[in-house]
Write a structure and sequence with these properties.
Structural class: alpha/beta
Number of domains: 1
Number of helices: 9
CATH topology: Rossmann fold
Order of helices and strands: HHEHEHEEHEEHHEHHE
Radius of gyration: 18 Å
CATH class: Alpha Beta
CATH architecture: 3-Layer(aba) Sandwich
Largest sheet: 8 strands, mixed
Length: about 260
């Protein structure tokens, strides 16, 4: 299972401030339809980038609770949100939310469920803590649908096979509609949000994800560091030829209790 330590949290925070992910957050906020005074859960809040935006939307009369399994992620979120009086943060799991039934007006769960073994339990928990007619926004990536140019297609397939083994649901979007229905949600809508990079930087979203996924293969002892560095160097070579291409589809699901 993938674990986000302090270094991974830092890299995630940097890559999630790239324009294409800022656009993703803005679309998420728009889809949630937040209003002043609402109580909102950010389940899997990460480094608090979306939490901060939610806080601004609900205002001082509202309330935002951010929950994340990684304390290193929460350390970033705490620093980012420390001046926001309507935000509280806690460590916890989306499969066992420590809130009363029907507590929140809305909830977000962004790029979190792919790491969760018990997805059905997590969605049921999100349903439980929402008020009647409460809204949920879930965003996930179909990693098996990645479109990219690669310096070594066989090695790339090997690296992404390792990623499949590291996360519980690498193509979760294909299963989310029936799972939401089974948990009692209705009015389900899906919005595709492609993330496209045609230039390469190890600090960009595509570059940082390729770096993270490659390091996962090293952790699983399927490759050594020299092989990974050679593979990553190949993307610089592609970029010099104006041949770098990375596109992955993310899908934003909204539903109502």
């Amino acid at each position: 299972m993938v674990k986000y330590d302090a270094k991974a949290a830092l890299n995630t925070d940097r890559s999630y401030q790239n324009p294409e992910i800022i656009n993703q957050r803005l679309k998420t906020i728009e889809a949630m339809g937040l209003r002043a005074g609402e109580y909102v859960l950010d389940a899997g809040c990460g480094t608090g980038l979306l939490t901060e935006l939610i806080s601004n939307q609900v205002g001082e009369s509202g309330y935002v609770s951010g929950v994340d399994f990684s304390q290193d992620m929460l350390d970033f979120a705490t620093s980012r949100c420390e001046s926001l009086g309507n935000v509280t943060l806690r460590q916890g799991s989306v499969t066992q939310l420590e809130f009363e039934d029907s507590y929140f007006d809305a909830a977000s769960c962004i790029q979190t469920l792919l790491y969760v073994d018990e997805v059905e339990t997590a969605i049921t928990e999100l349903h439980r803590v929402l008020k009647p007619c409460g809204r949920v926004a879930i965003l996930e990536t179909d990693w098996r649908g990645l479109v990219m140019n690669s310096p070594d297609h066989q090695l790339t397939r090997h690296i992404f096979d390792a990623w499949d083994e590291a996360v519980a649901s690498p193509n979760l979007p294909t299963r989310l509609i029936p799972l939401l229905n089974q948990s009692g949600f209705s009015s389900i809508r899906v919005q595709p949000i492609p993330v496209l990079n045609t230039s390469y930087s190890r600090q960009g979203f595509g570059g940082s994800m390729l770096d993270f996924i490659a390091k996962n293969a090293v952790k699983q002892k399927l490759l050594d560091q020299d092989q990974v560095e050679q593979w990553l160097k190949g993307f610089f070579d592609l970029a010099e030829q104006q041949a770098f291409f990375f596109c992955v589809n993310r899908f934003l699901f909204t539903a109502v209790k």
